[in-house]
Design a protein that fits this description.
InterPro entries: Aldolase_TIM (IPR013785), DHO_dehydrogenase (IPR050074), DHOD_1B (IPR033888), Dihydroorotate_DH_1 (IPR024920), Dihydroorotate_DH_1_2 (IPR012135), Dihydroorotate_DH_cat (IPR005720), Dihydroorotate_DH_CS (IPR001295), Dihydroorotate_DH_I (IPR049622). One of its GO terms (biological process) is 'de novo' pyrimidine nucleobase biosynthetic process. Belongs to the dihydroorotate dehydrogenase family. Type 1 subfamily. It catalyses: (S)-dihydroorotate + A = orotate + AH2; (S)-dihydroorotate + NAD(+) = orotate + NADH + H(+). There is one protein chain. 33% of the residues lie in helices and 21% in strands. The chain has 308 residues and is an alpha/beta fold. The protein has a single domain (7-56, 73-198, 219-307), classed as TIM Barrel. The longest helix is centred in the first third of the chain and has 15 residues, at 79-93. The model has no long low-confidence stretch (mean pLDDT 96).
Length: 308
Amino acid sequence: MSNPLYIQLPGLDLQNPIMPASGCFGFGNEYGKFYDLNQLGAIMIKATTPEARFGNETPRIAETPSGMLNAIGLQNPGLKVVQSEILPDLHARYPDLNIIANVAGSCEEDYVTVCREIGDAPNVKAIELNISCPNVKHGGIAFGTDPNVAASLTEAVKRVAKVPIYVKLSPNVTDIIPIAKAIEAAGADGFTMINTLLGMQIDLKTRQPLLANQTGGLSGAAIKPVAIRLIHQVFHATNIPIIGMGGVQTVDDVLEMMMAGASAVAVGTANFTDPYVCPKLIEALPKRMAELGINNLSELIQQVREGK
């Protein structure tokens, strides 16, 4: 009997569509103490930049009524450590686990450097291009807010990358469609979406922002309706696959995101409140699919495509 949860995407053969989102799972070490990571469809590891980064000053996390704000600032050990220690260790312990490497930088050259090298690891099957970073050569404007800049970056990394490129779209734009179309035309293999929504909280006693960075990215249940709307819009305007994320907590959230146009789903903030959420979703999917008359997920994806 074929696997009803199997999904095939550029570079990725997924035994199921569930994966932890980058930034919410580290490099898997902590969660590997709770369950076997081989159960996951893939993991999106923490962002990698050419050099190690400490990140922003603390406090850099604040809880909200239906999610959290964060301004971590891309803390990571840098490309050399990820290449020489982290990826080999993951491969030794989980030889069949798909790794999607999140890549970030401050200028185009940073992205090109990491994308050229990180795909050499045998377990890195795809790259997630984080284009929400400020572009220092363009006055700090995020790469993902300008269609031309986003397309130029996509073309540059496609020339050097050895694995498919999924570009992570930011919701912090006036119109996401021109950006998505420009990235697709530049040769991207897929999208991941959405990144966090820019937000702020104020401490009433100090009258100052709670985060040292003042603003941070809002994630969690509050942003799911925004994610569903943007995935639906991009799905109907483009023709490359989408890995959806943004407030996913339940198996119904997973299927709703796929009905909006996603072909796989990443889980973010929910990992912090329940470290077992991903294996629970994988276990619950077949029963809920049967209740809704869904034979397999590939068939569901095809039906959604045909309904465009």
